[in-house]
Amino acid sequence: MTEKEWLSSSNPQALMWFLRNEHKPIEERRWRVFALWCVQRPWTEFTDPRSRLAMESFAGWIDGLVSDAELANAHELAKAAEHEAWVTKRRKYPELLARAISDGSRDASSLASGIASHACSAAGYVAWQGAQGTREVQKQAKHAAWHIEANEQCKLFREIMGNPFAASV
To answer: How far is the C-alpha of 23 from the C-alpha of 43, rounded, in Å?
Structure first.
């Protein structure tokens, strides 16, 4: 990846892959902050208190205010919320995001990559559900929302990680 590609990419997975595989290690906290930001964007969609607890617990865990055991407990509750949402056919997102973010056992860069992907899917899902009209209109709304989310992720990812081509990063 060149600096020009880094600065113009609208593919968060490509940016993350580059930093994980082609660049010096980035501190885990930066990866986790990015993952948290991706999950917090659809905050209003989180109606299950167990899902909100998982996100809040992860935020506290990043800052050392929540123990591993507390995060693990929030993770179990988020898993139950996700399962319940899926079984009732209500929806898969955003509960999947809350369950995924609260998994403190995953390495930070893999967590961020998975969360970013799920967040794009969640944005598309919410747009699909809200779109009025034909299936084609729903598909277009989903596609547009996915790309908007990916672009926002890229902007923030570059802000959090800095320019790897600059000498100071």
So the answer is: 32
